[in-house]
Write a structure and sequence with these properties.
Layout (H helix, E strand, L loop, with lengths): L2 H8 L2 E7 L6 H11 L8 H7 L5 H11 L6 H17 L2 E8 L1 H5 L5 H19 L2 E9 L4 H10 L9 E5 L11 H9 L3 E6 L5 H11 L3 E4 L7 H10 L2 E4 L1 H6 L11 H6 L3 E4 L4 H4 L3 H12 L3 H13 L5 H17 L1
Bound molecules: adenine and zinc ion (ZN).
Length: 337
C-alpha cells in the first residue's frame, strides 16, 4: 500500500451517497437466493460479475432491481446493511447517510416495516460495534408516479423520527425533478431534509429544477452542472454539496476514463464536492476505493483529499456541534499525517 493509500484509509470521512441495495455483493445474492428459495439467472459469482458491464444508467438499473429480488426478510435487510457498515468501518467511515428504495420492495409485496426495521437494527449494530453513526434517506423511484411517491411517504409515517431525508433516484432522463415538487414539499413539511439525483445523465436544467422546485439540501452526482457556468457559480455561492461517485461515473459511462474525471475541477471551481460509492457491489469499490482510484487518476494530493473529507462532514445532516467535533478530529489526523 502506498503512503497515500494509507492516508486515505485513515482519513475520517462520511459517506453521503450510498444505496444500500447497491451494496448487495454477488456472494450475498447467492446466499439470500438460497435461503429464501428465490431463483436467480446466474450459475456462479463469476457470472454475476461478468453481467456487471453497463453502458448507461438504465442498463445498470435493470440488473440492480432484478438483484434486489433476493431481499425478502427483515434479516436480509439487516445482514445486508451490517455487511456494508463492516466495509465502511474498514474504510475509515465514521458517519453514513444511506439511501433505501422502499418501492423496490413494497411493489414485490415486502412490507415497508420489514425493510426499515432490518436497516434500523443494523444501524444500531454499527453504532455499537464500530462507533459509526448513520441516518436513513428514503428515496423515491422517479420512473414511478407522483401518487406512488405520496403513498410511500405515507407508509413512512410511523418511522418519521428515524428518517433524515427523502431522495430521488432511478431513471433520470424523462423524469425531471418537477414531477416530484409536491411530494418533496410534503416531505419538507414533515421536517425531512431533501436530496435528489440530478445531472448524472440529465441536463443542467434538472439541477436547476432540483434547486428551485424541490429545494434540495444536496445534489446527488451533479456532474452535468459543469456544462453551465452560471449554475456552477450558483452552486458554489450557495455552498451546495455535491455527492460525487467516481467509480459509478466510470461504470455508467458518465466519464469515459477516470483520468477525465472532473473531481479536482469541481474543487477548483469552489464546488463543495464529496466522494462516495453509490452502489459499491456493482461498481467495483467502496468509498476508500473511490478516493484511491480518483486520487491516482487525477493525481490528487493530501490537501485535496482532506478537503473532500471535510466536505463530507459539512454536507452531512448531522447537528452542527457534531460536525464541528468531526472536523476537529479530521484536523487532528491531518496534523499527524
Ligand atoms: N439507484 C441506484 N444507483 C443509482 C444511480 N447512480 N442513479 C440513479 N439511480 C440509482
Ligand atoms: Zn445514486
Amino acid at each position: 500500500m502506498t503512503d497515500l493509500d494509507t492516508f486515505i484509509l485513515g482519513l475520517p470521512k462520511a459517506e453521503l451517497h450510498l444505496h444500500i441495495e447497491g451494496s448487495l455483493e454477488p456472494e450475498q445474492m447467492f446466499a439470500f437466493a438460497q435461503r429464501n428459495g428465490v431463483p436467480i439467472p446466474y450459475a456462479t459469482v463469476e457470472d454475476v460479475r461478468a453481467a456487471y458491464a453497463f453502458s448507461n444508467l438504465q442498463d445498470f438499473l435493470d440488473i440492480y432491481y432484478a438483484g434486489a429480488d433476493v431481499l425478502r426478510t427483515q434479516q436480509d435487510f439487516h445482514d445486508l446493511a451490517v455487511a456494508y457498515f463492516d466495509r465502511a468501518a474498514a474504510d475509515g467511515v465514521v458517519h453514513a447517510e444511506i439511501m433505501f428504495d422502499p418501492q423496490t420492495h413494497t411493489d414485490r409485496g415486502i412490507p415497508f416495516a420489514v425493510v426499515i426495521e432490518g436497516l434500523l437494527s443494523a444501524m444500531a449494530d454499527a453504532q455499537a460495534r464500530h462507533g459509526i453513526s448513520s441516518a436513513l434517506i428514503l428515496s423515491f423511484l422517479r420512473h414511478l408516479s407522483e401518487a406512488e411517491a405520496f403513498e410511500t411517504l405515507a407508509a413512512a409515517d410511523p418511522w418519521l423520527d428515524r428518517i433524515a431525508a427523502v431522495g430521488l433516484d432511478s431513471s433520470e432522463v424523462g423524469h425531471p425533478p418537477e414531477k416530484f415538487a409536491r411530494v418533496f414539499a410534503a416531505a419538507a413539511a414533515k421536517g425531512l431534509r431533501l436530496v435528489a439525483h440530478a445531472g448524472e445523465e440529465g441536463p443542467p436544467a434538472y439541477v436547476y429544477e432540483a434547486l428551485d422546485l424541490l429545494r434540495v439540501d444536496r445534489i446527488d452526482h451533479g456532474n452535468r452542472s459543469l456544462e453551465d457556468d452560471a449554475l456552477v457559480g450558483r452552486l458554489a455561492q450557495e455552498g451546495m454539496t455535491l455527492t460525487v461517485c467516481p467509480l459509478s461515473n466510470l461504470k455508467l459511462c458518465v466519464v469515459d476514463d477516470l483520468a477525465d474525471h472532473p473531481i479536482d475541477r469541481m474543487l477548483d471551481l469552489g464546488l463543495r464536492a464529496t466522494i462516495n460509492s453509490d452502489d459499491p457491489a456493482y461498481f467495483g469499490g467502496y468509498v476508500a476505493d473511490n478516493y484511491r482510484a480518483v486520487a491516482a487518476a487525477r493525481d490528487l494530493d493530501k490537501a485535496q483529499l482532506a478537503t473532500l473529507a471535510r466536505n463530507s462532514f459539512t454536507g452531512s445532516f448531522l447537528p452542527e456541534q457534531t460536525i464541528v467535533a468531526h472536523l476537529a478530529r479530521l484536523d487532528a489526523y491531518l496534523a499527524t499525517h
